[in-house]
Each structure stands twice: as C-alpha cells, then as structure tokens.
Amino acid sequence: MKKSNNFAFFAERCGSIKYYLKGKEEIEGNVMSEEIKVAPMHKLIKRAGADRVSEESAVALGAALEEIGVKVAREAIDYARHAGRKTVKARDVEIAAKKVLER
Question: What is the architecture, at CATH level 2, of domain 24-102?
Fold first, then answer.
C-alpha cells in the first residue's frame, strides 16, 4: 500500500483530516499555510473566553496572525539592516511589533 493510501486510511479512521494534512490545509474552502496550525488557533480563541469555536474562525485567526507576523518580520528586518546587522534580534521584533500594531 502506498504512503498516500495509508494516509487516507488513517485520516478516515481518525474521523477528521484537518490535523493530519501536510502543506496547505484546506478546511471548508479556506486555505491556511502549514506554519500556523488550526488547533493552536482553537486554543487561543478558547483562552480569550469563547465557549465554542468554529473551524472557519480558527482558520481566519491563523490567516490574520500570519499576515500580521509577516508585516512585523519585514519591519524587524528593516530595523536590523538600519543597525548594520544581518541578524534580526528580539529587540528588533519588539520594536517592529509595537510599530505595526499601533497602525
């Protein structure tokens, strides 16, 4: 049996394929990259006080956080370059996050 067939069998047995996909995850028509998983998004929304969390909301939060993260990273890279460094340091990210989140 091929690996892909084993994967399909495993996903069927587990009842939900969302936590086992590699690469791009597609849940009810929404696509989310592999960097931010859906399960931690569920946990974040629950930690914020929600009783129930839909898959769509978890995917939407992941996409929003990924977009914000890329903006913060780009800004942090600019700060590091301005300081004459190739290495992005924690302080660069902290300053960039403040700047991006104030907008």
Answer: Orthogonal Bundle (1.10)
Sign of CA dihedral 39, 40, 41, 44: positive
Domain range list for the chain: 24-102
Q: What are the distances in angstroms from CA 40 to CA 3, 7, 62, 63, 70?
A: 27, 22, 9, 13, 18
- CB atoms near residue 23 (< 10 Å): 7
36 vs 71, 73, 86, 90, 102, CA distance in Å? 15, 15, 25, 20, 23
| pTM, two decimal places | 0.65
Per-residue pLDDT of 45-95, as tens digits, reads 999 999 999 999 999 999 999 999 999 999 999 999 999 999 999 999 999
Q: Is 44 left (phi over 0), alpha (psi -120 to 50) or beta?
A: alpha
Tokens for 75, please give them: 């800004």
CA dist list (Å): 34 to 14, 21, 87: 20, 9, 24
